[in-house]
């Protein structure tokens, strides 16, 4: 799977797994299915309510146009409200982000939504798929225009299993503040820490430790190379039976 690499001003390197083409296609299929189901439901509702038998064509057109708005703006509304996800994207565990890995803005979601017309609907998805395959960061035309991409947010369970094997039954939690971190946060911290160790890059370990202290709201007295593993172990120890 391709990855998106981000280098922060503190020289801490983050790695995001780019969403696979299959996951994106399935997410679109789910969302398109929801939209089609909505249109069918609306059509049946108008039929059984008798409105379609009305002789006032303007009234019918107005009602149909108004009832179509939720389907038309479905992607834009949900990606804005759900921080880059729709129902399909959430089920497939992918989300839209800026190319630097941070949360996209409404303007960027809007650009992607407008671009659906070209790289999905007018081309039957052909341009979008071709662009995802050929671009470095798996970006369709809408992503290129909005400076976004789609990443995978699946948790790496293998990392958790590895950490559990390292814990002892007598382990005592040193930093209860780790409850502020999500599983994804901790897995990412572990990835960066292990990469820095393998490259013998102490500056990254130091920058990472500083960032973790800020996230937890604490000041550790331990050396960074001891502090980070303890934070990871504390988190997994607290949540290992949940």
UniProtKB/TrEMBL annotation:
Entry keyword set:
Membrane, Transmembrane, Transmembrane helix
Q: What is its main location?
A: membrane
Q: Where is the RDD domain?
A: 18-146
Bilayer topology annotation: Multi-pass membrane protein
Record Pfam families = RDD
Residue ranges of the TM segments? 25-46, 58-77, 113-134
Task: Name where it's found.
Answer: Membrane
Q: What is this protein called?
A: RDD family protein
State the organism's lineage: Bacteria, Pseudomonadati, Bacteroidota, Sphingobacteriia, Sphingobacteriales
């Amino acid at each position: 799977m391709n990855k998106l690499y981000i280098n922060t001003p503190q020289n801490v390197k983050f790695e995001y797994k780019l969403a696979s083409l299959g996951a994106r296609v399935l997410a679109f299929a789910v969302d398109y299915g929801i939209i089609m189901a909505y249109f069918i439901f609306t059509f049946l509702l108008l039929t059984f309510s008798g409105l379609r038998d009305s002789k006032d064509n303007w009234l019918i057109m107005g009602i149909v146009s108004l009832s179509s708005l939720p389907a038309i703006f479905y992607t834009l509304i949900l990606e804005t409200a759900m921080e880059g996800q729709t129902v399909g994207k959430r089920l497939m565990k992918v989300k839209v982000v800026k190319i630097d890995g941070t949360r996209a803005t409404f303007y960027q979601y809007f650009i992607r939504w407008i671009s659906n017309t070209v790289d999905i609907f007018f081309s039957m998805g052909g341009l979008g798929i071709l662009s995802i395959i050929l671009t470095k960061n798996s970006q369709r035309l809408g992503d290129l225009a909005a400076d976004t991409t789609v990443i995978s947010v699946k948790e790496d369970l293998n990392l958790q299993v590895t950490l559990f094997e390292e814990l002892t039954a007598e382990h005592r939690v040193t930093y209860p503040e780790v409850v502020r971190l999500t599983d994804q946060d901790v897995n990412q911290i572990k990835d960066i820490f292990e990469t820095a160790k393998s490259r013998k890059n102490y500056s990254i370990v130091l920058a990472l430790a500083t960032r973790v202290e800020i996230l937890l709201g604490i000041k550790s007295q331990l050396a960074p190379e001891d502090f980070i593993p303890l934070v990871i172990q504390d988190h997994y120890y607290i949540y290992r039976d949940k």
